[in-house]
Amino acid sequence: MNNMVMNFLVTEGFSEVAEKFRNESGTDSDMDLATIADRMAVKDAVQRGNIEDAIKKVNDSNLEILDTNPQLFFHLQQQRLIELIRDGKIEEALEFAREELAPRGEENPSFLGELERTVALLAFKDAYKCPIGELLGTSQRLKTASEVNAAILTSQGHEKDPKLPSLLKMLIWSQNQLDEKAAYPRINDLSKGTLEDPVV
C-alpha cells in the first residue's frame, strides 16, 4: 500500500509530501524526487497560461519530447493560441494561427478539426459565452498540463498515470459485480477504507 501511495505522490508531483512520506514510512520511489520540481514547473507554467515558458522548460529537460510527439507540440501551440485569444490579442492570434498552426494542420489533417474549433473563438464577440467557450476555461489548461506531465513521465521511463486511482476504480467495479451475487464485507467509504458487514 505504501508503494501505491508513493507512486501517486510522485506521479502527481507532490514532492514535499513524497519526501515526508519517504522519511516516515521508509518507502523509496523509483523516481528521483529532485526531477519532480522540474516537471511541476512545466505543469505550473501551462496552468498559468505561460505556454512559451512551458515549451522552453520542456526543451531544457529533454529536446526529444516535443520532437517525437507532434500531437503534444500541437496541443501546446493550440493552448498558446487560446491564451492569445483570452488576452484579446486578435491580430497576433490570427498571425500565430496562420504561421504556426495552419502548417501543422496541413502536415497532419487530424489536427484540422481542433484548429478550426479553436480559431472559431475569434468569430464571437464574447468568446466565453459561445458554444465552444470551454476552450477558454481552466479545464482546457489542466488537460494540456496533464498531457505534458504524462509525456515527461513517459520520456523518463515512468508510468504516466498513478496506480492508486485505477486500483480504486477496480475495487468499486468488483464490489458492484459482487453485489449481484453475494453478501460480503464491503468498503462503502473509500476515504476510511473500513469494511462494513453485509446487510442481510
Structure description:
The chain folds into 2 domains: 31-155, no CATH class; 165-196. 65% of the residues lie in helices and 2% in strands. It has helices at residues 2-12, 15-25, 34-48, 51-61, 64-67, 70-86, 90-107, 112-119, 138-155, 163-179, and strands at 186-187, 195-196. The two termini are 31 Å apart.
Relevant terms:
2 domains, 10 helices, CTLH domain-containing protein, 200 residues, mainly alpha, globular, CTLH_C, Ubq-SigPath_Reg, LisH, two-stranded antiparallel ribbon, 2% strand, 65% helix
Structural topology:
Elements: H1 2-12, H2 15-25, H3 34-48, H4 51-61, H5 64-67, H6 70-86, H7 90-107, H8 112-119, H9 138-155, H10 163-179, E1 186-187, E2 195-196
Antiparallel strand pairs: 1-2
Helix pairs in contact: 1-2, 3-4, 3-9, 6-7, 6-9
Give me a quick take on this structure:
This protein has 200 residues and is mainly alpha-helical. The chain is 65% helix and 2% strand. It starts with a helix and ends with a strand.
Beta-strand level of the residues, as a percent range? under 5%
Mean pLDDT: 89
Distance between the first and last residues' Cα: 31 Å
Number of helices: 10
Q: Give the strand order, joined by hyphens, for the main sheet.
A: 1-2
What pattern of helices and strands is seen along the backbone? Answer: HHHHHHHHHHEE
Overall 3D geometry? globular
- Flag low-confidence runs: none
Structural class: mainly alpha
The number of domains is: 2
> Largest beta sheet, briefly?
2 strands, antiparallel
